[in-house]
TrEMBL record:
Matching Gene3D superfamilies: Helix hairpin bin
Designated name of the protein: Uncharacterized protein
Length: 81
């Protein structure tokens, strides 16, 4: 490799490091926003109860699954005033 190839490789590495740092910063910002908006602490999907701990099946009797069976509605028209 000549000097130009080393310089280009270093530049590419610096770009990757910079991009990774920006990604980490953006992820931290998004988590902060989500935590500020969430009424409860964010939890893993398995702790919500619709997935069995063995991950072999999904329980159809849980409220999250039942909610998917309801037809969508306009929240503005259906809000109480």
């Amino acid at each position: 490799m000549d000097e130009l190839e080393f310089t280009e490789a270093e530049s590419n590495m610096n770009d990757l490091v910079s991009e990774y740092q920006q990604y980490q910063d953006a992820t931290a910002d998004e988590e902060g926003v989500l935590r500020a908006l969430a009424p409860l602490p964010l939890t893993s999907i398995s702790s919500l109860g619709i997935i069995n701990v063995d991950y072999n099946f999904i329980e159809a009797s849980f409220p999250a699954i039942e909610a998917t069976k309801k037809p969508p509605c306009d929240p503005i028209k259906n809000s109480s005033r």
